[in-house]
Write a structure and sequence with these properties.
six-stranded mixed β-sheet; Hypothetical protein af1432; Ubiquitin-like (UB roll)
């Protein structure tokens, strides 16, 4: 798989022939007649339209389809990419599209429609993103098309106004880049990050670009020496592997500079240690054998080894990571993986959106509803391979209907900001939660009632504060009481969107119920006063009655009367006695 091409690169001509050639690399037996037909429809629909750059509009859907073809996506996805703007920007309707190309293509096109009109702070933004999530719950290819669409728009961002560039780059940074990370589509994520850096921090981008260019010649010389030594060592142990130079992208360098500045003042030197990816030909056993060769050739750096094969990342990324002191005693980062792991590491969920045996059969990667029957075509779909990276999407679909538009967008960004860990309950249930989650997050993951009634927790058998951050593998027992209730301070430390939404919802409902209780409690007291042939002119005397009864204020008195804990005649009797003897 080749990564998406960087802006300005000289790759194959952007035309239907180039698109079909890229598609056949991954699908040599594909029937491309439907792609050609979709191109003709899109070309005719967009005829006369131009982009801000002055180019014919058809260049955009073609570029999006090419990105997807290079990722190895199926024919249906490429057809949808070619047609993805027709319904929004031309007279061509969704009904016509469905009739001409089928319901699958229509669903994909409808799912990505209008997301480019997102505006932070407005309800249209949240509802459009919500629509995207719902569509992706039925077919995750919606997400992949949206990422490719945004990648090409970011590549051509220079034609936009300064305000538009900043708005589009900000939405890309806050929603689409984390989304690409969740889906494991690193090939797109890396380029989007660099394009966002160029748009939002052009001076930083230009500085890194100059310094990287100045170091390129000695870097290549060092890498040639490193690769030669590593290839010899692998050959000696009869390990077949590809050695890929993997320089850090600009955003990664910028983040390392930022960390260094925070730690020890301004640092001008780039923190760009040499890095290679070692792609072995065999299975995971070969990865560990290659690791032994690497550590036998150069001394490993203590504390820098990570085994993501034994414990994959939340998006099912697998690889061995190690840092060694390579030639000239320089730190070198080495990533070791199989060919399949490399494909997943670059394309993520896009690699699992391919039909079995690379044919053009039905894509079966969709979420299964946990409740309620589905009458749509998605009801007949089954899982393809590992899809644990979609757990977070299922969780969001579970709670999204309970939120307002503003709450939804806030919770989505909140949820996308973190990686994930696995936590276990005492009965062996596994829960996937964001990093730094707390026992409160666990309680709400078990259900809204469990969360609302949470009063404490045991972590690994020991009592722990509800705000204590959990570590991967912790065993948590949630302690509840029917008299419990969430605290507002929980909102300051919970990490999961489900907990965040449920706590906010509890307080919203509780406040409505309390207002009702206050109003009706006061009415009952007034009616009791009328029955006693008295009139309540002002509330001050009730303050004293509330105090005598051990209540905090008059509102608490009204609620107590409404709930039947105190009788209204008793309150009136005490009030009359106080006033008459006062």
């Amino acid at each position: 798989m080749s990564p998406p091409r960087p802006a300005g690169s000289s790759q194959q001509a952007l035309n239907i022939t180039g698109l079909l050639r890229a598609h056949r690399v991954h699908h040599p037996r594909a029937d491309t007649r439907a792609i050609r037909r979709a191109y003709r429809v899109a070309h005719r629909a967009h005829e006369g339209q131009t982009r801000k750059s002055g180019e014919p509009y058809i260049t955009h859907p073609l570029a999006v389809a090419l990105i997807l073809a290079e990722l190895g996506m199926d024919t249906t996805t490429l057809i949808a990419a070619l047609l993805h703007d027709t319904v929004e920007d031309t007279p061509y309707t969704l009904g016509q599209l469905s009739h001409d190309f089928g319901t699958d293509v229509a669903h994909l096109v409808d799912g990505v429609t209008k997301l480019d009109k997102v505006r932070f702070g407005g309800i249209a933004e949240a509802e459009t993103v919500r629509k995207l999530l719902l569509a992706a719950g039925r077919d995750v290819r919606v997400f992949v098309i949206k990422l490719a669409d945004r990648l090409h728009n970011m590549r051509t961002l220079g034609a936009k106004s300064a305000a538009s560039r900043r708005r589009i780059a900000t939405v890309t940074r806050d929603i689409l880049i984390p989304l690409a990370g969740r889906l494991g589509v690193q090939a797109i994520k890396r380029e989007l990050e660099d394009l966002v850096l160029a748009a939002l921090e052009p001076e930083t981008y230009a500085t890194i670009q100059r310094e990287v260019a100045a170091r390129e010649s000695p870097r290549r010389a060092y890498m040639a020496q490193l690769v030669a030594q590593l290839a010899d060592a692998l050959r000696t142990d009869s390990i077949s592997a590809r050695i890929l130079d993997r320089p850090r992208h600009y955003t990664s360098i910028a983040e390392r500079i930022m960390v260094s500045e925070e730690a020890s003042g301004p640092v001008r030197a780039l923190h760009d240690d040499p890095r290679v990816v070692l792609v072995v030909s065999g299975n995971s056993d070969e990865c560990y054998a290659a690791l032994g060769v690497v550590h036998g050739t150069w001394r490993p750096v203590a504390g820098r080894f990570k085994d993501f094969i034994a414990t994959p990342k939340f998006n099912l990324y697998k690889s061995l990571h190690t840092t060694v002191l390579g030639p000239e005693h320089r730190p070198v980062d080495i990533l070791i993986r199989t060919e399949h792991m490399h494909l997943i590491g670059e394309a993520g969920i896009a690699a699992r959106c391919r039909p079995p045996n690379r044919g053009q059969g039905r894509i079966a990667l969709a979420l299964r509803p946990r409740s309620a029957r589905r009458t749509s075509e998605a009801a007949t779909q089954t899982w393809l391979g590992e899809t644990a990276e979609l757990d977070w999407l299922q969780q969001m679909l579970d709670w999204q209907h309970q939120t307002s538009a503003d709450q939804f967008l806030e919770s989505l960004q909140f949820d996308l900001a973190d990686h994930e860990i696995s936590i276990f309950t005492t009965d062996g249930q596994s829960l996937t939660l964001p990093v730094r989650s707390t026992p409160v997050d666990v309680a709400y993951a078990l259900g809204s009632e469990s969360g609302d009634q949470c009063i404490g927790a045991r972590v690994n058998g020991q009592l722990a504060p509800l705000s204590a951050p959990l570590a991967a593998g912790d065993v948590v027992e949630v302690l509840t009481s029917q008299y419990g209730g969430p605290e507002r301070e929980w909102l300051e430390f919970v990490r999961s969107s489900r907990a965040h939404v449920q706590i906010q919802q509890w307080f919203a409902e509780h406040e409505v119920a309390t207002l009702k209780a206050r109003r009706l409690g006061k009415r009952v007291i007034v009616e009791a006063m009328v029955a006693a042939e008295r009139v309540l002119m002002y509330e001050q005397p009730l303050v004293a009655v509330a105090s005598v009864l051990g209540l905090s204020d008059v509102d608490a008195l009204y609620v107590a009367v409404y709930e039947g804990k105190i009788s209204a005649p008793d309150v009136v009797e005490r009030l009359i006695a106080m006033v008459d003897t006062g």
